[in-house]
Amino acid sequence: MVLHVSPHDGLPIYLQIMNQIKYLVASGRLSPGDELPPIRVLAHQLLINPNTVARAYRELEAGGLLESRQGSGTRVSERGSPLAKEERARILAERVDALLAEARHLNFGHQEIIDLVQERGRVIQSEKGER
Amino acid sequence: MDNTPTDGATYPVTAVEVTRKFGKKVALEKVSLTVPRGCVFGLVGENGAGKTTLIKLALGLLKPTEGSVRVFGFDPVADPPGALSRIGYLSEDHDLPLWMRVDELMNYTQAFYPKWDPAFAEELRETFELDPSAKIKHLSRGQRAQAGLLAAMAHRPELLLLDEPSSGLDPVVRRDILSAIIRTVAEEGRTVLFSSHLLEEVERVADIVAMIHQGRIVLCGSLDDVKSGYHRLTLRFREPQTTRPSMTGALWCEGRGREWTVLCDGRLEELRAAAASLGAEIVEEHAPSLEDIFVARVGKRVLPAGKE
Question: Per-residue pLDDT for B9 more than 90?
Fold first, then answer.
């Protein structure tokens, strides 16, 4: 599991960690039952405060994505997959929000955006076909 | 935060209304803070803000002009052994006996601390790749910092005090310093108080930050609380603005024409309403970095030591 944190990002580091772990689970790079690195190990690897890692794990546990058992470390919970669908939608929704904001500043209407999405979809499809 | 911090076990360091003067110059003015056990406490501020004075007060190297400082419940000036045996300290200029060799420094320092852990000292020496027979005066700046860190850490102090530990060091040694801080807190109950110009490092490792400016604490709290109390917003106005917009809660503002970036404290909903009443729309919203907050509160960027 490779995570990156950037203190200058502005987003609190525990949230950066939470988002990246959610992403790894949503994209299937972490599967239910997979073990996460111990808090100290991840803190050392990322050079951040162990309390910050602990907070990210704790909040992901509270949300049901991770579970920890005494003596067996922290794992991706078996219930991880139904959450993952929601999480995938959330990630995409963020991108869509950014697109809509950008489109508004460039004076694009709703229908124009939809047309553009369909057109780009066709272009990408045909490029795939040629390969 | 708890205001009855006389309990030395819960709060390794407490300062109550501390003022310290050097002649007429006031270095610290009515500074109160508490450092809870098991946390990393970061002091930030410019050169001359009073950070070093505060650390020296905790070490008992200076006496407060007014107010009181307690370390593990002891007065560090009246009872140095009570406090000092539990502290590890690295000074800003890493002052070490230059005539000694690395192994001599290790033996010498060991004599002061009954709890010195020779195996841990040796492990640190190997990690830092310090040659035991090298003379301290022949070490590079980075190697001296590592030797100083070894001497400060090998008795596994309950409180590690680091004064500008990273200043003037290359990234490799800065990593060692951060790693030492993390290692110290990861061991149950140990506490770190450090000062730094490098706000990015403070953001990485601190649980609590205190900003000192001209001898006063201008901001103190958990890093997450401090950061979530501020918003960096980009406002887009319907009409170009010829003067700086007077946004509620704005501490800092930069821009021209129709687009201005402001750093505000306050709740986001209220800020949205305030922007709307000025005829502006919030087009971007970011959580500010500690550096942004520092600039907004103090009006200047933090400069690394020696570059002012």
Answer: no
CATH of B229-298, one of 2.30.29, 3.30.70, 3.30.200, 2.60.40: 3.30.70
Amino acid found at A44 = H
3-class SS string, B58-122: HHCCCCCCEEEEEECCECCCCCHHHHHCCEEEECCCCCCCCCCEHHHHHHHHHCCCCCCCHHHHH
| DSSP 3-state of B26 | strand
What is the tens place of the pLDDT at every residue in B228-264? 889 999 999 988 888 888 888 888 888 888 899 999 9
CA distance B19 to B27: 8
List chain B residues with CB under 8 Å of A14.
Answer: 224
Tokens of A75: 């794992």
Return the higher-pLDDT residue of A14 and A130. Answer: A14
Q: Is B263 in a helix, a strand, or coil? A: strand
pLDDT at B270 over 60: yes
pLDDT in tens, B88-129: 999 888 788 999 999 999 999 999 898 999 999 999 999 999
Between B207, B283, B292, which is nearest A49 by CB?
Answer: B207
Query: Considering CB atoms only, which of B206, B227, B289 is closest to A49?
Result: B206
Say yes or no: domain A7-79 is CATH 3.40.50.2300: no
Domain locations in chain A? 7-79, 82-130
Domain chopping of chain B, boundaries: 13-226, 229-298
DSSP B138: G
Amino acid at B82: G
Residue B184: both structure tokens together? 């110290």
Contacts of A49 in chain B (CB under 8 A): 40, 182, 185, 204-207
Supply the ipTM of this predicted assembly. 0.76
pLDDT in tens, B11-58: 999 999 999 999 999 999 999 999 999 999 999 988 888 999 999 999
Cβ atoms A54, A39 nearer than 8 A = yes
CATH topology of domain B13-226: Rossmann fold (3.40.50)
pTM summary value:
0.83
